[in-house]
Amino acid sequence: MEKDKKIKVLVVGDEWVHTEDLVTVTKRMLQGYDYEIDSFDVIMDKPMSRDRSENIGDDSITEYCGKPQDLIDRIADVNLLVVHTAPVTKQVIEAGKNLIAIGCCRSDAVSVNIKAATDKGIYFFNAPGRSVEPVSDLTMAFTLMLGRNILRADRYVKSGKWDEDINRKTPIWDEFTTFRGLTFKNKKFGLVGFGKIGKRVAEKAAALGMKVVVYDPFVEAALIQKYSKAEKLEEIFTQCDFVSIHVPPLAVNKGLISKKLFEMMKPTAYFINIARGEIIDEEALIDVLQKKKIAGAALDVYYTEPLPKTSPLTQLDNVIITPHLAGQRTDLSTGSAELLEEMMGPFFQTGKKDHCFNIDQLNK
């Protein structure tokens, strides 16, 4: 980048990653440049929704907040665009005739049409790995909570039933004994997907003494050599005591986990999904849970978000449900902005493109 030319910047934050934090790291990245920053916030009305009724003119954008027109109205002279969940559609990129680079502080930047940016020769930077620790932590928390029946036992105590059952003249132990949990050592933990998060989950599951089995046809066998490799997805569902999903939210993965696979699971097995709701057949999962064909499930993501009050999932005692919070961390805003700075800063300060997401395609 030439430091003698003024850079016009547009920064778009939201309630999760604040505009002021993005502006702060942008100023550090552009130290030594002459720059001008415009900024605004988008409203996170339905974050992570895949069922929007409006047509934003770009089917590649699957998760976003705000309206493309708000960016189009401001982007004509912009050289650098920095966003979080704002929708950077093909139309936005076409309107940004002077764009040089786009930075998005998400790991899976599904709110940006990266292909359209690449076709125009625009450098794209993201924030890979920002959710690795919190998501892998919640995966293991779910594993422990399911295997030890923690939530049901918690409700039992809070309802006063423990006191009532045990302080009878003849104690009643029937419900109490149903809280007996399994031991995790040597149990098979099945991973579908072996990216950054999948690798970290594997390490944590192995630390509990579990036998990790991995299915990921896109990863070389040498990278999975510490664990067992499943050649077919069906092996994970028929053999494992826990099945956890960690594949990216790509169109090709929609409906990947089918009714057929759920029906292959052992009656003592547990299912965990912290990836995306549309990856699984949610109705099929509900069916096997209702019929007690599997021991239980823990879900942080759903086909429709927020989860409707009428969803059968809210009535089941063998499922843990949380409101898409896996990637949430106390330093989400500053941490995300600083990770993007780590990836993108060298591009402006030294010209290095090592962390540019689409550099291989641009070089071609």
UniProtKB/TrEMBL annotation:
Note the InterPro entries from the entry: D-iso_2-hydroxyacid_DH_PdxB (IPR050418), D-isomer_DH_CS (IPR029753), D-isomer_DH_NAD-bd (IPR006140), NAD(P)-bd_dom_sf (IPR036291)
The record's listing under Gene3D superfamilies reads: NAD(P)-binding Rossmann-like Domain
* Molecular function terms, GO-annotated: NAD binding; oxidoreductase activity, acting on the CH-OH group of donors, NAD or NADP as acceptor
The reply on keyword NAD is yes
Highest taxon of the lineage: Bacteria
Instruction: List UniProt keywords, sorted A-Z.
Output: NAD, Oxidoreductase
Keyword Plastid included in the entry's annotation: no
Q: Which residues form the D-isomer specific 2-hydroxyacid dehydrogenase NAD-binding domain?
A: 141-326
Please report which protein family the annotation says this sequence is part of: Belongs to the D-isomer specific 2-hydroxyacid dehydrogenase family.
Protein name (database record): D-3-phosphoglycerate dehydrogenase
